[in-house]
Write a structure and sequence with these properties.
The chain is of the alpha/beta class. It folds into two domains: about 5-170, 3-Layer(aba) Sandwich (Rossmann fold), CATH 3.40.50.620; about 195-320, 3-Layer(aba) Sandwich (Rossmann fold), CATH 3.40.50. About 30% of the residues lie in helices and about 25% in strands. The chain is built from ten helices and 15 strands. A seven-stranded parallel β-sheet has the order 5-9-4-1-2-3-10, with helices on both faces. A five-stranded parallel β-sheet has the order 12-11-13-14-15. α3 packs across α4 (about 90-100) and α6 packs parallel to α10 (about 300-320). The structure holds flavin-adenine dinucleotide (FAD). The site of flavin-adenine dinucleotide has 29 residues, from α7, α8 and β14.
Amino acid sequence: MRGKIWIYIEQIDPDALGLLYKLQSLREDKKNDISAIISTDCDPAPVFLRGARNIYRLLGKGDERKISGQIAALCREHTPDVIIFLATISSRNIAAMVAAELKTGLSADCTNIALRNDNILVQTRPAFGGSIFADIICEHRRPQIATVRPGIFLSGNNSFSEGAEMGEIINVPESGDEAFTCLLKVLNTGLQPLSAAKIVLSGGKGIGSTEGMRLLEKLAALTGAAVGASRSSVSAGYAQYGYQVGLTGQIIRPDVYVAFGISGAAQHLIGMEDAKTIIAVNTDRKAPIFEYADIGIVSDWKPIVQKLITVVEKKKMAVSVH
Ligand SMILES: Cc1cc2nc3c(=O)[nH]c(=O)nc-3n(C[C@H](O)[C@H](O)[C@H](O)COP(=O)(O)OP(=O)(O)OC[C@H]3O[C@@H](n4cnc5c(N)ncnc54)[C@H](O)[C@@H]3O)c2cc1C
């Protein structure tokens, strides 16, 4: 059975080219077609050289919502069997929106992929904190969509596909405003640059509501900090996934990490334990986070944050008056 395998390339870099190179190895006797979806700015030449037969070039400077609309429309027209994305912050948002739009499955953060003879994609990813590797398949819905961790498949500069030839470049016009608003509420990160921030104010389940998280955002905006979150607070809908710190979120090393209402589970600690100074605010004096904190405050988080906001706002006003 001839399969159509697609890859979305956000930018030409070793991770993207490595993944493309890996996809070639899924082409048994070249029976599968590999096509790439690239942004307007990407150079198509290295993509063709690494085995893509066709290139769909997305026109316009679309945001993630528009790009996912363009990709979903392409899928409806050309019915690919598989689309692979690199698990970058932007591409995984796009992959999730495409999967939701096409009502198909998505395996996030895979560490390996293989293609069975019947064109079923075997998507391998760590589970239960990395203690096992699960093989996931999406038997009935198409396309099968997976994101693959950057850095897993690398190719040298010279790893070109044998018999590579320049194929067709198909320009894809910008799509209109598809109604992804609902999903965007969850996924659209409008990210604070968490990875680069010197100070991170992070909210856990103990924050208790989205309003609580807005209060943290207000303090962060006033102090030039970024906002982080635990997985439980993301799952509860208080924070966007882009804020998540930890094993399945971002690993960060800020100068100061302040954990409000976060218990200190191992999967969270992995993401922030290398911060230079850790401050924890928690009502439970036995919360594990206190074992890792340089400064621990046993208290409800809210009055502390409200007081900080008042103090910082007063200071700012005093500075602007003088
Ligand atoms: C495979 C796997 C991957 C995971 N990846 C991640 C990850 O990337 N990141 C992550 O964070 N977690 C991850 N988890 C989940 C993790 O195990 C914990 O469940 C999660 O970190 C708990 O989040 P939390 O501390 O916000 O919530 P809880 O454990 O529920 O803790 C809430 C805390 O808030 C305190 N609190 C309550 N009210 C207040 C108040 N008013 N003021 C102050 N404190 C208050 C409580 O005392 C408690 O300590 C993962 C789990 C698994 C199995």
